[in-house]
Structure formats: structure tokens, C-alpha cells
Design a protein that fits this description.
This protein is α/β, with parallel strands linked by helices. The protein is 32% helix and 15% strand. It folds into 2 domains: 58 residues, no CATH class; 123 residues, Dihydrodipicolinate Reductase, domain 2, CATH 3.30.360.10. Strands 1-2-4-3 form a 4-stranded parallel β-sheet, with helices on both faces. A 4-stranded mixed β-sheet has the order 6-7-5-8, covered by helices on one side.
Amino acid sequence: MFLCLPDDAAREAVSMISNASVCVIDASTAHRTAEGWVYGLPELNKTQRDLIRKSNRICVPGCHATGFVCILYPLIASGIVPRDYPVSAFSISGYSGGGRSMIAEYNAPDLSEDMKNPRPYALKLSHKHVPEMQKIPGLKDPPIFFPTVANFYNGEIISIPFYKRLLSKKMSSKEIFSFFSGLLQG
């Protein structure tokens, strides 16, 4: 069963399943950090694809979280970034992720001037992807996350700045680039 529902409705739908062998793939944020659910990112590590294949409870990763996790997870798993690192992340994305109402707003013929420029949101630091951005890479504390929406339909850029002096392994920018290049080739 594929669920594309708001969080509360997704939880309710799953609670009504009486046959434990029914495979559920949930696109909401409802189960992304829930026990017994497998994070549906096969590229996460060498065993993730097999975990997904064998599971009957799979949560679909969030858009911002996917980019964030793909950057941070290997750095923590390899001991380059400590779990207690004070992570801040910046993201700029297109408006399609905001759903039907935001798409309509940006496609309106009388688009206001303020919407033509990038606009930060979730300024209370409580974006719905933060729990999975903490749990999946294994961070001790939640990251500070600054998402921004811009006047383009889709796409996303995520940046995580690092202080070299706070890394567990002292590495240059070039060495970190080589580390990621090796992941792509291996």
C-alpha cells in the first residue's frame, strides 16, 4: 500500500491494517523516525537496500532531509564528523515542494514582488524534516536548519558548513572532496 496522506491520516491508515504482512510505503513524515520503519534511502549504506527489500514498513525520505542525510551520514559513519557536532544546514529549493497552493501562488499572473526573491521559512527552527535529519545520520542534537524557497519550480541545493577544527579527523576541503569522490566511485 502506498500512502500519500497528511501525517495524522497516515498514522490512522496504518493503525487500521490488521494483516502484518501488508507492505506499506508511506510518503508522509509520520513514520520517518518511528521504530519498526525502514528509511527508504537505498544509497544510505551498504545494507540499506536489503533492509528496504525485506521490510513491510518503509518510509519515504523527505526532500530536504535526503540531501542533508546524503552529505552528513557518510561523514559521521566514517568518523570524520562527530555525532555531537553543532550542525547548521542551509537549503534553497523550488516552490513545487510547497504543494498545490504554493504552486498556484507562484504561478499567479500577478505574482507579488516579494515572492520573486528567495524567502526563508520555518524561522522557528521547527521544520518537519528536522527529526529525521537528526536521527538518520545519528546526530546527538537536532541541526539548525534554514530552508529557503525561491521563484523556480523544482530543484534544491543544500549546504552544510564545517569548521575544520571541530572535525574528528583533521581533513582539508580537498580531502573531504576526495572522500566523497571515492564514495561515488565505490
